[in-house]
Structure formats: structure tokens, C-alpha cells
Amino acid sequence: MDRPDIVKKDISDFTIKPNMDNYDSFCEDFSWDLMKKEIEFFVDGSINAAHIAVDRHVQRLGDKVAFHIIGEDWEKHPTYKDISLLSNKFANVLKKQNIEKGDRVFIFLPRIEEMYISFLGILKTGAIASTLFAAFGPDALLDRLSDSGAKILVTDSSLKERIKDIRNQLPELKKVIVVGDDAGDDIHFWDEMNKASDKFDVEHMDPKDPAYMLYTSGTTGKPKGVVHTHYDIVQQHLTTKWILDLHKDDVYWCTADPGWVTGIVYGILGPLSNGVTSVVDARRFSAEKWYGIINDYKVTVWYTAPTAIRMMMKEGSDITSKYDLSSLRHLASVGEPLNPEAIWWGIDSLGLAFHDNWWQTETGGILIANYASMNVKVGSMGRPFPGVKAAVVDENGVELPVNTEGDLVIMPGWPSMMIGIWNNKEKYDSYFNNGWYYSGDRARMDDEGYFWFVGRADDVINSAGHRVGPFEVESALVEHPAITEAGVIGKPDDMYGEIIKAFISLKKGHEPSDELKQEIKTFIKGKLAGHAYPKEIEFRDNLPKTRSGKIMRRVLKCQEMGLPVGDTSTLED
Ligand code: ATP
Ligand code: MG
User: Fold this and answer.
1) What per-residue string of b and e applies to 159-172 under the rule 16 or more CB within 10 Å gives b?
2) Which of 49, 264, 383, 531 has the most beta carbons within 10 angstroms of its beta carbon?
């Protein structure tokens, strides 16, 4: 099988020319100030992200579908005008409850229309919006609602049960608004909506006023409440246009849940700001349903995550051929390192390469990416967005020579950089040193300025004096035909400092055995340097993951060492 290391791009091959047709020339002419013209400021220089995302389009695109929302036995297709008017109504509902600029209003809802309306309505009032993943239990909710001092919670009649026992511990939570029939003593969402006017003068916000806060995924420890501004929309708009390459007639599908930053930035604000129609799948995952969505809705641009791609891969390619997937034009991935195997699978099964990109809750938008028009070096995260200075530095913040592993840092000043960690100035300050923003990730940069992910700083392994990044070992492991997923840790060892231990889950039709372990070790020895092969292998049905789909190596490590695993509020069941 042909397994290219580079996916070459030639601009003359594109039937639809990428919005960014030449990376280098876009970098040369770039300035964030110039880019503000993409965004509609109010005459007094203020903005409101919800106005930019929705209201400014209504005159031209009012009847265009904003979201196709697909439930188990229902569908909804609100237009731009619907979303604009309904979020106006919701803003009025909040005003009636005395919500003021800066108050925190949290949403704890599944992927239903009300979730999108509420989010945008909150922004319109100038309050700070946040979302809570619908699978959270009471402890995760208590942590986040009390840390943020949320004043109103929007939820539904079934999820409301989960706050029943914690409500008396939330003195700042004044009101609960309930979607569904069973509001009890709380506020009935649609009763209030039906009474409210659909006219609302959106709050004019200073660009640097907070718009939303989100808790990180909790992969490395306790989630942090990251605060973002209305001005972020400049970067959200532009990265959506140039990296996800959305054109006006695209049908775009971002699979991330709005409980996480990707679901907010690239599931709501970015695509709306670009006036595009999005698909939202509110159902439980199955490969058939996913292929069915591409087939039925003629999805053109698909933004997903490595875990989801691996779940599709696990099903094998027989099922792929049952669907018409020819509408797809551009594929992107984020959230975790994208193994080369996943890119090759995309090329074989979908006829397209996934374009990896890197960012964090804290960065508020994509900072490093593979662009539609730029050659993809398989396994690399790509190159910094125009106007973004990324570097790999040593412990003093000095830039390292090419191809040397170090801390991945960014020069502060990009528009969507967080402005704070809620209630934790010390934590916020700890991100900045030597004039850089420290991502906490380790990387290398090659001689063409492509960045290569090594691992999270805490996950990099030191074995007999050799530093080994888990990504490299995991990527080699998933190339083995029996392996779906691999999580690699450093296990403390008297002789070597750490030895490499791999946790592996197998594809359908493969059984764990000692022979298979041996075969895998031999397979890896043929691919990686001698010190990088896993001395120990353990088979697992599933690897521990966050609900946003990231392998929790720290949980594997603590389990291995018999230590308490710390905050597991985001651990998948
Ligand atoms: P926490 O900060 O609470 O431990 P988290 O870091 O997983 O959780 P997010 O902000 O959702 O929370 O994730 C950002 C992190 O995800 C990055 O720092 C990086 O480690 C990883 N990541 C994101 N995109 C990529 C990518 N393309 N390649 C490799 N890693 C990625
Ligand atoms: Mg993080």
C-alpha cells in the first residue's frame, strides 16, 4: 500500500480554490489590525460576538439554515433568522431575571436547539456564557458552578435531577431555567420565551470584555476555568475561513460537543460568523450514523478528532463503501496527536487526508495548522497561523535549533488568547515566562517551520537517559494491523529510570496473547530506535479517556503505580 510521508498539494488540482491559496504570501501581508475588517464593529468601536456570528447575516442570509440538528427521532433546521430572533428572546428572558454584564450563566443541555439559542442569547446580554457537558455528574457540576459563581443555569427536566442534591451548596445560583415540561418551581424555558419580545439591543461590549469561559478537558489534572473575550471572534472567524476553508455553500460538520472549546469556537461562533450551514449530530455515536450523515447531508467539510477517526477505523472499510462520501472536500482533526495511520486511512477510505491542527482551550483558536493548499507532512501539526509566532525553546526561553525537542511556546498577542483563569490569577500568571506563553506541550520544529508534537510535558518519558515522546511510540503501535488504540507511559524503574509501557486495545477479531505481545515488540523494534520500544505491554478493552476523547495517560500511570488518580470529573464512563 502506498503510504506517503508527504501529501503534496498543487493549487491547480482544486476545483474550489482554498480561501488561503498560498501560505507564505498570506504570512507576508498579514496583520491582525487589517483583519479586523472581516468583523463588524459598532460605530463606537465596541463589538458583540453574537451580533457578529448571527445578527449581521440576517438581512442577507436570513432564510439560510444555520444548523441541521439531528436527534434520535427528530430533526430541526433553524435558519439564521430563527437563531437571531430566538436568541433575542432568550436575552430578554435573562434581562427579566436581572442578568447583568459579567454575570455567569451556565448551560447544561444536550445538543438541542435551545443550547445554541441560549449560548448566543447570553452573549447578547453581555453576561459570560459557559457550557457543561451533558454527561457530567453532580461532582463535576458542583466544582464548576461553585468555582464560577454561576447565577443562572439553563438545563432540561431530566438533567435537572443531577443538581438536585448539590443545589443547597450553590448559594450564588439564583435561578434554574428548564427546557421541557417538568420545570417544577423553576422557570419554564418556553413559557418565558413565548412571552418575551424577539427584539433586543445587543449589549455593546468592549472588545476585551469576557464573552465566555470554559473549563479545560482535565487531561492532566483539575480543569481550569479559562476566560475568553468578544474580540476572540476575529481569530475564530479567520481561522475558520482559512484553516477549515469554509466557503458559502459548504455543509460543515464539527463533531465536537459544545461542552468543550472546539464545540463552541468551531461548532458555533466560527461557522456562524462565516455564514455557513452546519450539521449537529445529537445522537449516540455509531459509524453507520456518521457515514449516513455525510451521505444524507452531503457534508463537504468535516472537523473531527483522532479518537473519532480511530472509532471509524475500528469498524473496518467494508462499511465505508456502502455510503456515498464523495461530497467531502476538506477534512481536519484536532484535540490529540493525529497518528499517521489515521491520515493514511483517510486517504484510502475517504480519498482525502485529514489536516491536523493544534490549539488549546487557553488559546481560544487554532494556532498551528495544516492548510488545504499547503503540503501535509504526515504526523506534523503544520505551521503557525499567519500573525502567530510559535517556537520551541529551552528552559531559559531561548529558541532551540531545528529538530530539537523543547517547550512549545507562543508569543503573546494573538486575538483569542485567554484573559484569565477564573479565580486563579496565580495559575494564569504561571503560563507566562521569558516573554512567552507556555503551552505545556513539547514539540520540535523542522527546517521548513513545520511543528511536530512530542507529548505533553508531563508525559514525556526518560528511559536510560533517552527522552521518548509517547506520540512517536503510539503512532508506531497503531500501525500494527491488530491495534486500534495505544497509550504509552513511563513506568518508574530502578535500572532505567523509566521503562516504556504500552496499553493497547485491539481491533475487532484480534485476541490478546503472549505471542501477539512478542509480535508487537518485534514490529516496533523494526520502526523505532532501540530505546523507544515498549518493554511492557498490557491489553485493555478500552483506554481511559476524557469525555472530549483524549487518552488520559496520567490515569494509566497512576493505576500502574497504585496511586490515587486525582480529578476524574471528565473521565468517560
Ligand atoms: P487540561 O489542560 O485540563 O489537562 P487539556 O489540555 O486536554 O486538559 P484542552 O484545552 O481541551 O484541554 O486540550 C489542549 C491540549 O490537547 C493541547 O495542549 C495538546 O496537548 C492536545 N492537543 C490538541 N491538539 C493537538 C494536536 N493537533 N496534536 C497533539 N496534541 C494536541
Ligand atoms: Mg491543557
Assistant:
1) bbebbeebbeebee
2) 49
- Which of 266, 304, 360, 456 for mutating ligand 1's site (highest number of atoms within 8 Å of CB)? 360
Which residue owns the Cα nearest ligand 1 atom 27?
358
Q: Are residues 473 and 541 in the same domain?
A: yes
Ligand 2 centre to CA of 94 (Å) is 32
Q: What is the pLDDT along the chain (573 residues), one digit of tens a residue?
A: 568 899 999 999 999 999 999 999 999 989 998 888 899 999 999 999 999 999 999 999 999 999 999 999 999 999 999 999 999 999 999 999 999 999 999 999 999 999 999 999 999 999 999 999 999 999 999 999 999 999 999 999 999 999 999 999 999 999 999 999 889 999 999 999 999 999 999 999 999 999 999 999 888 888 999 999 999 999 999 999 999 999 999 999 999 999 999 999 999 999 999 999 999 999 999 999 999 999 999 999 999 999 999 999 988 778 888 999 999 999 999 999 999 999 999 999 999 999 999 999 999 999 999 999 999 999 999 999 999 999 999 999 999 999 999 999 999 999 999 999 999 999 999 999 999 999 999 999 999 999 999 999 999 999 988 999 999 999 999 999 999 999 999 999 999 999 999 999 999 889 999 999 999 999 999 899 888 889 999 999 999 999 888 999 999 999 999 999 888 888 887
Distance 131 CA to ligand 1 centre (A): 18
Q: In one letter, which amino acid is 138?
A: P
Nearest ligand 1 atom to alpha carbon 550: 7
Asked whether residue 482 falls in the same domain as residue 418, the answer is no
> What letter does residue 200 receive in the DSSP assignment?
-
Which of 358, 422, 552 for a ligand 1 pocket mutation test, highest count of atoms within 8 Å of Cβ? Answer: 358
* 375 lies in the same domain as 517: no
Atom 16 of ligand 1, residue of closest alpha carbon: 335
For 114, the domain range is 6-442
DSSP conformation letters of 201-247: -PPPB-TTSEEEEEE---SSSS--EEEEEGGGHHHHHHHHHHTS---
Instruction: Using alpha carbons, select from 547, 540, 525 the residue that is nearest to residue 483.
Output: 540
Compute, in angstroms, the gap from residue 359 CA to the centroid of ligand 1.
7
In-domain check, residue 451: no
Looking at the CA of 219, name the nearest ligand.
1
With the most atoms of ligand 1 within 8 angstroms of its CB, the residue from 219, 366, 454 to mutate is 219
**One domain, residues 72 and 214:** yes
How far apart are the CA of 232 and the centre of ligand 2, in A?
19
> Could you tell me which residues are beta bridge partners of residue 492?
498
Same domain? For 248 and 217 the reply is yes
The identity of residue 332, as a single letter, is A
Q: Are strands 461-463 and 466-468 parallel, antiparallel or unpaired?
A: antiparallel
Ligand 2 centroid – CA 220 distance (Å): 7
Distance of CA 316 from the midpoint of ligand 2 (Å): 32
* Final residue belonging to a domain, choices 382, 412, 442: 442
Distances (CA, A) of 141 to 134, 153, 181, 569: 10, 11, 23, 9
Instruction: Say whether both 517 and 382 belong to one domain.
Output: no
Number of domains the chain is built from: 2
